[in-house]
Structure formats: C-alpha cells, structure tokens
Amino acid sequence: MSRWPSDGRERLRQAALELFAEQGFAATTVPEITARAGLTTRTFFRHFPDKRAVLFVDEDEISEMVARLMAEAPAAVEPMALIRDGLRVLAETRFEGRRPELRARRALVATDAGLQERDLRKRAAMAEAIRTGFLTRGIDASRAALLGEVCATVLSLSIEEWLDSDDPRTLDHVVQATFDTLRAELG
Amino acid sequence: MSRWPSDGRERLRQAALELFAEQGFAATTVPEITARAGLTTRTFFRHFPDKRAVLFVDEDEISEMVARLMAEAPAAVEPMALIRDGLRVLAETRFEGRRPELRARRALVATDAGLQERDLRKRAAMAEAIRTGFLTRGIDASRAALLGEVCATVLSLSIEEWLDSDDPRTLDHVVQATFDTLRAELG
DNA sequence: GTCTATATCGCGATAGAC
DNA sequence: GTCTATCGCGATATAGAC
Questions:
Q1: Of all helices (H) and strands (E), which one includes residue A82?
Q2: How confident is the model at residue B4 (pLDDT cuts 50, 70, 90)?
Q3: What pTM, to 2 d.p., does this model score?
Q4: Does chain B have fewer CB atoms within 10 Å around its N or its C terminus?
Q5: B62 and B142, same domain (yes or no)
C-alpha cells in the first residue's frame, strides 16, 4: 500500500468542485482545495497548470476525439457530411443525458471572466482540431479553417440553445436546425 | 502642472510594448515596465486591469463602433447587407494600412496562452455586440446570435488570411471572398 | 501609496512501487 | 537501483484591499 491514499488528482478535483459550488470559484483558494484533499499546495500545481484547469480536464479529449473521427472516416466522405456525422457522434457520446451537470458548469463559468476565457479557448481548440483534420484529408487551408470555425460556432450556439430550453429535442436536432438557419441566412 | 510628465498611461504602454518586444511578454514584469516609465507598480494597475490589457486597449472601441453602426443603419436594411457594409467600414477604418503593426501584434500574442485567451475574448465581445445590435433591430434571438458569431468568425478568419499574405487585396475583399466560400461550402 | 493575499513555480528530500 | 508522487521550504509576481 502507498503511504498516501492514491489518486490524489481525483481527490483534488473533487475537493475543488465541492468548494467552487459552496463558495464560488474566485473565493476558493488553492490551499483550501489541497487542505480538503489532504495534500499540499505544491502538489496541486503538479496536477493542474492552474486553478481553472480543474474545470477543463476533458478539454483535450474532445480534440482527440475529433481528430480520430476525422482520420477514421473514409476519404470519399464529403466535408459537410463528415461534419454532420461527427457532430452527431459528439452530441450523443459527450453531451446527451448530461444536461443538468452541463448547466451547473455553465452557471459556474458565467461567474468568472477567467473561466469564460478558458471556455473560449476550448472552442478554439475544437475549431483547430477540425481544421487540422481537414488539412490532413487534403482540403485546402482556407476551406479547412472556415469549416473548423463554422463547425465550432454551430456546435457552441446549439449547446447554448439546448441548455437554455427544457424541450425534449436532442442536441443533434438542435445542431441540424442551426445549420438550416445558417443556410437560410446566407442564401 | 503635474510633478510628473503627463500621459503616464501612454508612457506605460510604450515601455510595456518595448519590453515585450525585447524580452517577450511572460518574461516582462510589471515592475520592469513601471521602472522604465518612471512610475510605480500601483500606477500601472490604475491604468490597466492586468498586464495583458496593454495589448488590448482598443477592445471596447470596436464593440462600441459596431453598436453605433448598427443603431444608425435604417431599419429597412437587411441583416446580411448591414453586415457587409459594417465590415467594410470596420476594415477600412481600423485595419487597412496597419498590416505591419498588426502582424507584429499577432506574433506577440502567439507566444503566450494568456494573450491568446484574451484575443478570443475580443472576438467574443464583437459577436456579442452584433447579437445585441440585431436584437435591438427586432431580429429573433437565435438568428441574432448566429449572425453575430458568423460575422465574428468571417472577420477573424479574413484578418488571418489578409495578414498571412502580401498580396495587395484589401481586407474588405478578403472578407467578401470568405463569405462566398462559406456560402459555397454550406450550399 | 503602502500593505497584503494569493497564484504560481523552482529546488532538494523522501517514501514507496517496480 | 529507477521512477514517480509527494512534501516542505521558499521565492516572485500579480492583483486588490486599505
């Protein structure tokens, strides 16, 4: 057995989420978090690059998932079809069924400017992953960048609408509706 | 008369930009900046909310400009026409002729994650200003949000392309070309 | 203007897993 | 032995309170 209870990272995450919920993000200090987790301040920064990172542990996972989905799709699949299918998979595996949890997280992020900026970086990372995926598939640079940004935009707006409402539409339905609205707007 | 040469804010900004260029953003401390400007650390934070803000002094101005342009346009102007004209004005008054300066700024922002996040917030602020403008003009909420985001996306991608190349196209031309590409992509 | 809290990170030591 | 997680101490910068 280890001298220290294992999985310190997860204990730190749990403690941090509890404290953020109890007293807010800004009012919670790293020493408070580590005290609750039974660790030291220094240890916190070995696991997380900064205090905000606790709320964005899955940031990289989405980009990796996007990269994998795009790499695995047959070369013949057209860009917009790939986007449609990819967003459906993303919606079903990472969003559907988590509405309450995601709402709570959104409310917390809304309380702090630093968290909002970090959230924007997450969106940018997704756009970048899509751009890279299309470049790898042989799409030219400006088309790839445009597809990445539009895809990230449509997804984030759709998530907002989906979280705002209580109607039983799935996120994927909202995404398709957003694309339709966009087409109508530009056309 | 003041005991100190006036316009401390501008001296701070100059000193900061020099030091950022000489040694990088992260390696430059606020005490260093204020020492060069002949002021105290406290004075720096009276003028700027944080170290990054030095590079984003015009952040609010663009949002205000967007709000004004949208409020002044006749009610009969269609959304996409308003966007087209608004982006043209923005491109001509705030970007055209500043390519070298904007390139240097972009290179600096690229060196620091914190600066990139702040840059993303600037983009988000613009999208939000456009969204609010359309809401005021009576457009429904989801259309307004979509128009704001798409507009911000097209502008930022166009700026990137315009800064990347040395060709003599104006930013406004690149913006229109980006809209055309987007239409083709979705259609 | 001064003072202070807090975030962040570098370094060397230590404990246990393998 | 090596590798990794942790500790304890301390330094510095940012940022805000007073």
A1: helix A79-94
A2: low
A3: 0.93
A4: N
A5: yes
